[in-house]
Amino acid sequence: MIALLEKDCGLRRKAEILRWIESRGFRAHVTELPDAALVGVLGAGAEELAAALLALPGVREVRPESPPWPLVSREHHPEPTRVRVGEVTVGGREVIVAAGPCAVESEGQLLASARAAAGAGARLLRGGAFKPRSSPYGFQGLGEEALRLLQIARAETGLPVVSEVLSEEDLDLVASHVDLLQIGARNMQNFRLLAAVGRKRTPVLLKRGLSATLDELLLAAEYVVSAGNPQVILCERGIRTFERATRATLDLSAVPVLRGRTHLPIFVDPSHAAGLRELVPALAVAAVAAGADGLLVEIHPQPEQSLSDGRQSLDLPAFARMMEGVRAVATAVGREVAAG
Ligand code: PEP
Ligand code: MN
Fold first, then answer.
1. Between 67 and 199, residue with greater pLDDT
2. Which of 45, 110, 111, 222 is the most exposed place for a label (fewest CB within 10 A)?
3. Ligand 1 in reach of 185 Cβ (< 6 A)
4. Is 237 in the pocket of ligand 1 (CB under 6 A)?
């Protein structure tokens, strides 16, 4: 629930209102807007306080029907949030492309990918260190060694790095090596992990669960933000439907729907959605046309040799060609993509 305070509500009165909310077992989160203070009343059943809250001096308006994810809602924060990942700003005019291999496999594979990514205009380097594999017999990632290789690649190319954290157990380790912590689709509702990344200062890339609604994605983001970390980027990566022609169904409606509901930046991952590299460029340009703030794309110097997700990974020349299309569409919709 959201409450708006009177423009001239003084500090003392504001403090009384917050105390009143907190004494009833709810949390209050204040955002100063140009013409009013906006108070997010956080906690299950907050809407039952609506009438009593509205009766307090200094309260101008109460919106009990506002969404159950107040902190990430656009109502709460009308301006788009910009997330800083190293030196890169996500959520501005520039469309940010994160590219790299599904999993870090070797120094040679990672460096070749990183150089090609940077050379084609990508601004972030992806690379899985801890991999969530459907089969326990699949390649699980190089773990800490991969994190070390990502740092080498970052030092060489200057690209900030993004890698997935699979469990709370690895969080300190992963957070100390990466610029952006990825929460994978399968962990979107791992609530303890969400709260734990919320206690970190590292920005978070939160992927939509395979069967999660957009409201559930926003609630997951609310976990992170309400635990103290406002630096969250959402990522649509395809959902499971009855269609079998693609690995998942890319829900591009997610982009404009989320744009209307939240101030957080929105990425699209065409690779995991398509599952097939030949479909990735079309989905990538469509995502940019739909208003995505960034893309997450899998590339590999020799996709057929890849230890994971080779079928959906673009080879390096194909990635460079994809970037030309992405750049053209970005320009057409008033955005820009870094030069290659
Ligand atoms: C990934 O990006 O490496 C990944 C595993 O994606 P997802 O969690 O969307 O399946
Ligand atoms: Mn992958």
1. 199
2. 45
3. yes
4. yes
> Residue 217 — pLDDT band, cuts 50, 70, 90?
very high
pTM above 0.85, yes or no: yes
Indicate if the pLDDT at residue 192 is higher than 90. yes
Q: Which CA distances in Å does 106 have to 50, 152, 166?
A: 57, 12, 20
* pLDDT tens digits, one per residue of 26-52: 999 998 887 888 999 999 899 999 999
Whose tokens are 């970390």? That residue is: 229
The β-bridge relationship of strands 161-164 and 36-42 is: unpaired
> DSSP string covering 129-187, please?
SS---SSTTS----THHHHHHHHHHHHHH---EEEE---GGGHHHHHTT-SEEEE-GGG
Distance 289 CA to ligand 1 centre (A): 23
Residue 104's DSSP bridge partners are none
* Residue 100 alpha carbon to ligand 2 centre in Å: 10
Ligand 2 centroid–CA 127 distance in Å is 9
Ligand 1: residue of 139, 237, 295 to mutate (most ligand atoms within 8 A of CB) is: 237
Each residue of 247-306: pLDDT tens digit? 999 999 999 999 999 999 999 999 999 999 999 999 999 999 999 999 999 999 999 999
- Residue 201's pLDDT is what? 97
**Cα 38 to Cα 76: distance, rounded to the nearest angstrom:** 7
Residues 6+ apart with CB under 8 A from 297: 97, 98, 99, 122, 126, 269, 270, 271, 280, 284, 314, 319, 322
Size (the chain), residues: 340
Cβ atoms < 10 Å from Cβ of 89: 15
Rounded mean pLDDT of 160-185?
98
**Which domains does the chain possess?**
2-66 (3.30.70.260), 83-332 (3.20.20.70)
Cα dihedral value 336, 287, 265, 117, nearest 10: -60
What is the rounded distance in angstroms from the CA atom of residue 113 to the CA atom of residue 278? 18
